[in-house]
Specification:
Two copies of one chain form a homodimer. By secondary structure, the first copy, chain A, is an alpha+beta fold. The first copy, chain A, is built from twelve helices and 18 strands. Helix content of chain A is about 35%, strand content about 25%. In chain A, helix 8 (about 280-300) packs across helix 9 (about 320-325). The first copy, chain A, starts with 10 loop residues before the first helix and ends in a 14-residue tail after the last helix. The interface between A and B is large, with 63 and 63 residues. Chains A, B: It comes from Salinispira pacifica. Chains A, B: This is Putative ROK-family transcriptional regulator.
Chain lengths: ~400, ~400
């Protein structure tokens, strides 16, 4: 990780750029030959051959199998893939009272996953507790970790690793990275939970220019009676990038979902909200009001897809009835737009999966000219340096 | 203009990239020395010296003046600037019944501007008519044109040079570029008028990562009685780029500003809309309703600035009263957000200025790895090739 302005004449840039381009295409295609890489990337065959030689030497890329010789004869193409087991990325979702975790290899395959309750501790100690708790499981995979992504509810300054505000954890301007980083030997990246969901979809979509919206709806049924209120967040993916806005608050809905006294949400009382789980008509009322609120923004953002995620997933049957009630709406009433709505495929492990995908996407990101890669980038150099001492050393000194 | 995938190992890429980086920094700084360029870009001094030598040879860059020698002694730095008069960009706004035009040099300085009425013709013939009409004025500047940007009301597929839909011109899926390009020897770029306004602000802001919104409000007072209805458009600039959405319709407000019968706009009758010009209370009512409609989107987009433009410019005094009425709104009622609202500085030549800036921004854009530059890019190679035969030959064969 370094903050260096990238220029084309800069040797670091050229090397990193070609490496990233080659690795990204291999990961996109799963398996691909040197000839195809050279054709797709417009690089000379000798350049590709040299890069692949280095990547094989480093143990990142391996030969998979030989293809068919072309009808013209000649050598059979050899297909290349990312070697499983070279390194893993841990994705964590930390919520009030529990965590979810997944451990992915560099192709995004799940090596392990887990869920457990966590005692009420300050956030950084919850993090330490979780890492200690899962250390043995990570070690058992035999794959050394190269990075950790952490999903938390609240607005997050990704570059500084700070929580700007989290109602759930009652935190403001909280320097998570500062408290954590000195004690861990691998990079830890913090991200808002809704955005993690968007990163997960982005990884699955694998499209560098896509525009989509990720609508996370959570009723917090487990502790609505206590302190939690329903939460709605929107993740914005614009030109293949998660969009953060000017103050890392993009996707936050206006606070006027709650009325001034904080007793009504989208014109529904706390009592009604509590009964949403049992009464599908209340769920439909809630979704109709929410969608009407979002209609203008959807129109303005012109997404190619809208993913619904969170607790709403259990109420899929309600959606057609809700859309029927929205027939008069300029966005939701338009069949061409309605077709764009689908449910996220992530399931309940979506947040930790997305947190890990955020780190993977950054690893496979293509360096851009004239911009600083900043703290939120993770270089392949870092993966290269992972010692062959197994998983146990990598999670730091806790 | 070529559609070539950019890779770092690609020689075209490296040359274009360094050229673009150097020219962009010179234009940003107005004047800058080789030493500063080398420091800012992280390029070797010899690389910068070679690039500057070529650019001076081509007549694009010139030496301006010598700076002070540093306290350490040594050679005085020589400041470089873009040479005025090497080439110009024409920006046109074509509306029903009139056009506005500006002619800018490559630093964005205005060389000429004009306005005139145009007879009702098919759009491509209006374009020919305007070019014929202003040809002498362009020639008189002595600066040969290198490109034309055209602002039109309606949704535009920038890459194809097509009008997707224009209510004003009653056009659908109209291949403007196809009808025009064979007859003009310099590239012509079509763009939506609101987005042109955003391009103008982007040029003035000169910030590669800025996020802002450009809200264009037009009452079409001159022909409201006939066919035109008030028009509101939003230009979105995200990470320093105009955002188009998945179907070039980003920034389009839901059609529900008009009621189902098309007789009321934001709950105001056609009669009220006609009287807006005379009655400031109606203007305030209109703006309050519009801002309430946009509040949720502004919250979701988290812009650093919001520019108001168009006819609303004449009613600046109304804004404080409108904001007072919006005290209860979650976005407009927040003093931190209200501070972000200001009036566009473009004035009535904003649209043609922005249309020219769109072409300039593309000329100064930095090529990005792994992406095709596509039809909407304009290369410096094109500027280099402008023959020294003056302005007259460049506008084509009309």
């Amino acid at each position: 990780m370094r903050a260096e302005i990238m220029t084309a004449g800069n040797q670091t840039f050229q090397k990193q750029a070609n490496l990233s381009l080659v690795l990204r295409r291999i990961r996109e295609h799963g398996m691909i030959s040197r000839v195809e890489l050279s054709r797709i990337l417009g690089l000379k065959k000798s350049t590709v051959t040299n890069i692949i030689a280095e990547l094989m030497d480093r143990g990142i890329v391996e030969q998979r199998k030989e293809g068919e010789a072309s009808s013209m004869g000649g050598r059979k193409p050899v297909y290349l893939g990312i070697r499983p087991g070279i390194a893993g990325i841990l994705g964590l979702e930390i919520e009030l009272g529990f965590y979810r975790a997944v451990y992915l290899d560099l192709s995004g395959n799940r090596l392990w996953s887990g869920y457990a309750e966590v005692p009420p501790l300050p956030l950084e100690h919850m993090f330490d507790y979780i890492i200690q708790h899962i250390q043995k499981d990570i070690e058992a995979t035999g794959v050394p970790p190269a990075g950790i992504g952490v999903a938390v509810p609240g607005s997050v300054d990704l570059e500084q690793g700070k929580i700007i505000e989290s109602v759930t954890f009652k935190l403001n301007d909280f320097d998570f990275a500062g408290k954590i980083s000195s004690r861990y030997s691998i990079p830890v990246f913090l991200e808002n939970d809704t955005n993690c969901g968007a990163w997960g979809e982005l990884w699955r979509r694998n499209d560098e220019k896509v525009n989509f919206l990720y609508l996370l709806i959570r009723f917090h049924f487990h502790n609505l009676e206590k302190t939690e209120k329903p939460g709605v967040g929107l993740g914005l993916v614009i030109n293949g990038q998660v969009y953060y806005g000017s103050s890392f608050r993009a996707g936050e809905l206006g606070s006027n979902l709650w009325d001034e006294e904080g007793t009504e949400y989208l014109h529904m009382s706390s009592e009604e909200l509590l009964r949403i789980k049992e009464d599908p008509r209340l769920m439909e009322k809630f979704l109709e009001a929410l969608f009407r609120k979002l209609s203008e923004s959807f129109s303005i953002l012109d997404p190619s897809e809208v993913f619904l995620a969170g607790d709403v997933d259990e109420y899929r049957d309600s959606i057609p009835r809700v859309l029927e009630r929205l027939k008069d709406d300029s966005w939701f009433g338009n069949p061409r737009q309605r077709e764009k709505i689908s449910f996220s495929k992530g399931g309940e492990m979506e947040m930790p999966f997305g947190a890990a995908c955020m780190v993977l996407e950054r690893l496979y990101s293509i360096p851009q000219l004239g911009s600083s890669r900043g703290r939120i980038h993770i270089d392949w150099e870092h993966v290269f340096e992972i010692p062959e001492t197994g998983a146990s050393h990598m999670l730091g000194t806790v």
